[in-house]
Amino acid sequence: MTLTPHEIDALLLPLAPSLAREADTILDLRELLMSKGQPGKCVRCFFRLFTAAGTDSLPKLAPLRDFLERHLEIAVRADGSELETLPVKLRQGENLEDFCLRSMKQVRLDRTYQAQRVDLAFRFKAAA
Question: Which domain of life is it from (predicted)?
């Protein structure tokens, strides 16, 4: 994933007027996307914006949500090897904690891994 500053701004600038109180979060997210920074922090920023958005602002978050869902995934690892990847699906009405709990439950309840410890981590998808 390589985005130009113009593409990043096209995702974030429409959010600024209605989410002015979250200017720091928008700027943090811009910096993370420009530097291909920590994907977990990108998701955290999204949920901050989502929580702060009023109902009239939610449609403006749709392009950002779609972008994150297209470019991020959850890597499931155990014992030093990757077991699988999960898609990132950001649901309306969830917060970051709900999202993380849902993802952990999916791995814990829907899988039968033999490992004692299974780790989940956000990451950018590899270029196709």
Answer: Bacteria
Distance CA 7, CA 10 (A): 5
The encoded tokens of residue 103 equal 């993802």
State how far the Cα of 70 lies from the Cα of 11, in Å rounded to an integer.
Answer: 14
Distance CA(42)–CA(74), nearest Å, equals 13
To 5 degrees, how large is the angle CA 16–CA 51–CA 123? Answer: 85
Q: Tokens representing 96?
A: 């970051």
Q: How confident is the model at residue 113 (pLDDT cuts 50, 70, 90)?
A: confident
- What confidence tens digit (pLDDT) does each residue in 45-94 have? 999 999 898 777 788 899 999 999 999 999 999 998 999 999 999 987 78
